[in-house]
Amino acid sequence: MSVAPSLTCIVVDDNEMNRLTLEHLIELTEGLVLVASLGDAMEALDFLRHHPPVDLLLLDIEMPHLSGLELARILPPPPPEIILVTSHRDFAVEAFALHAADYLVKPVEPARFQQAVRRAAARRAAPTLPAATAELPAPDDHDQHLFVKVNNKLVRLDFGDVLFIEALSTYSVLVTATQRHIVYATLKAVGERLPFEHFQRVHRSYIVNTQRIDSVEDHLLRLGPYEVPIGKSYQDAFYRSLRNL
């Protein structure tokens, strides 16, 4: 897998075997350049303060002295994109609150690693705005909007702006070209309440706006700066639906 342009990265994990695994995945990823592999978050903080900025931080969460979440909150500017790597699924909401590019659960699979790096590269090329918290309204057959709660006020968001919806633990994330919004509902629940036929489930973790698909190649959908995989069990139904777009 190639990343263009090249991204510099740092690995931070107190487990040597986990670091070696990530280093190997980096070696297999053309365009991803390892700058340092460190076993302590305090050491990483010192490194980042005294060296040129890097593009990407592959960061373990549970470490002694200073956790990965704590490190992410005090990174010196300009902050890198962050991919959190952990043995537990319980930190997904915290990862989203930190605007992490992705959240990987150990053991990290190569394909999932590459997807995360592509996402980080896309965000680096087209930075997003801070995330907001969204509330999904009752369906309205005559309008394509929902209201997003931002700083204690409701802001109108057109469904036409939503590229895809992604599962995040027991929550869902609405992703537009410029912003991400948490919805306090599972992806299944969101999908059941969507009143628009052009939103289609293509993966156990994704619903896409088929009107915003730019291209399809190798079972990957390109929507703006993002790539979304088509799950094997969803492929037949999706490709049949393309004839009707």
Describe this structure in words.
The protein is of the alpha/beta class and 245 residues long. It folds into 2 domains: 2-125, Rossmann fold, CATH 3.40.50.2300; 132-242, Beta Barrel (OB fold (Dihydrolipoamide Acetyltransferase, E2P)), CATH 2.40.50. It contains 7 helices and 16 strands. It has helices spanning 16-27, 41-50, 68-73, 92-97, 110-125, 187-193, 235-242, and strands at 2-12, 30-38, 56-60, 81-86, 102-105, 132-134, 145-150, 153-158, 162-168, 171-176, 180-183, 199-203, 206-209, 215-217, 220-223, 226-229. The strands form 3 sheets. Strands 8-7-6-11-10-9-13-12 form an 8-stranded mixed β-sheet, with helices on one face. A 5-stranded parallel β-sheet has the order 2-1-3-4-5. Helix 3 (68-73) links the parallel strand 3 (56-60) and strand 4. The model is unreliable at 127-134 and 137-142 (pLDDT under 50).
Give the structure's gist in a few sentences.
The protein has helices spanning 16-27, 41-50, 68-73, 92-97, 110-125, 187-193, 235-242, and strands spanning 2-12, 30-38, 56-60, 81-86, 102-105, 132-134, 145-150, 153-158, 162-168, 171-176, 180-183, 199-203, 206-209, 215-217, 220-223, 226-229. The protein is α/β, with parallel strands linked by helices and 245 residues long.
